[in-house]
Amino acid sequence: MRFGVNYTPTRGWFHHWLDFAPDDIRADLDSITALGVDHIRVFPLWPLFQPNRTLIRPRAVEQLTLLVDAAGERGLDVGVDGLQGHLSSFDFVPSWTTTWHRRGLFTDPDVVEAQAAYLTTLARALADRPHFLGMTVGNEFNQFSGPPHPDPDRIGPAQAGRWLRRMLDACEKGAPGRAHLHASYDAAFHDGTHPFTPAHSARLGAMTAVHSWVFNGTAQRHGPGGAATVQHAAYLVELSKAWATGPGRPVWLQEVGAPAPHIPPERAAEFTEATIAAAADCPDLWGSPGGAPMTSTARWRTSRSSSTGSACSPTTGGSNLPGRRSHEAYGGGGRRTLRVRRPGGRRWPWTRATRRRRRRGRCARRAGRSSRRGCGWPPTASGRRSSWPSGPTMPDIWWRAASPRC
Questions:
Q1: How many other C-beta atoms are found inside a 10 Å radius of the C-beta of residue 211?
Q2: Least confident of 1-10, 14-23, 159-168, 259-268
Q3: pLDDT for position 342
Q4: In sequence order, which residues have a C-beta less than 8 Å from that of residue 56 and are 6 or more positions away?
Q5: Which single residue of 50, 152, 195, 336 has CA 20 to 30 Å from 25?
Q6: Is residue 252 within 8 Å of residue 208, measured between CB atoms?
Q7: 378-400 b/e (C-beta count within 10 Å ≥ 16 → b)
Q8: Which of 254, 238, 299 is nearest to 272 (CA)?
Q9: Is beta strand 251-256 parallel, antiparallel or unpaired with respect to 208-212?
Q10: pTM for this one?
């Protein structure tokens, strides 16, 4: 079973590319190797590697190969994220795409061709390394496509799909046969208006990437030890399988963490153990979540893959049949089935009373309240039953799960 970490340098954070220090990197990699992990994920900063649309700095590419080679010398496989893009709430976007030179990151032909050339260059430079796993298009680049980003380049699902295919083709051109993929943050699964969809995640690229962070409302609603919290990663893995076109699609849990203050430091170990146990229960596990010792925060980030298996809820007894989702999986009360869209976009029939209840619930959620209480959700940390969530939490994922959008 594989076990890996995201590499965050101890000195300089991701700005270490500005003062590239091979000795510091080797020391970091020695520490990582001592943990017994077998692969890492590394993050070039896009503006430093491609400061101009037609300039991809050879020295920066050489430094990336030095890092990858140092990892290979220690028996570590390496996955490389290309378009950073976005890291830990900070955007790194080249000056030739902003302000006076503002261009659409997903739709401007010159920008798209420059991005493709950049990804091909990185992939080609690493193609002959046996320990190079493949390219990830970029870290959560989908966050530039809509809210809550303060200045998004808005697109639709069809445009997102075309952009992803172009970027993946560019990676394949540079390093044929490697495991090239893309990675979206979890709005792709829980936000029905997001242009990057579950189908994009589960059907494009060599495998599906899942990023599981319980600060998305899950930990706030269910507490640090709630069933929905500790099984959030496993649930997203299984949910992504439901969107795949076949049972053999591998899933890579690229990121999962114990974010403070939602997971208090004194409960981080408990949360980590429970999350790993739940994820390890997924069939055909390729790898297992692991801590990131090179970070100075309370997070731990992971890497793993699993494949095959039908879609199922993270706990027993829940229904995950196409077209409906059950509250039963999360216990705490009676069963209540939610029907969503049929394949093809037609809605299931609703009674007039049901439509009224849905309208009231939507209005209440928009106002930051809830008109649905005591509906069978797990208790909150205070011991009281939680109300219908007002943000993008686990129950919202079920509404998205059966949507036919692609």
A1: 24
A2: 1-10
A3: 34
A4: 49, 50, 117, 118, 121
A5: 50
A6: yes
A7: beeeeeeebbbbbebbbbbbbeb
A8: 299
A9: parallel
A10: 0.73
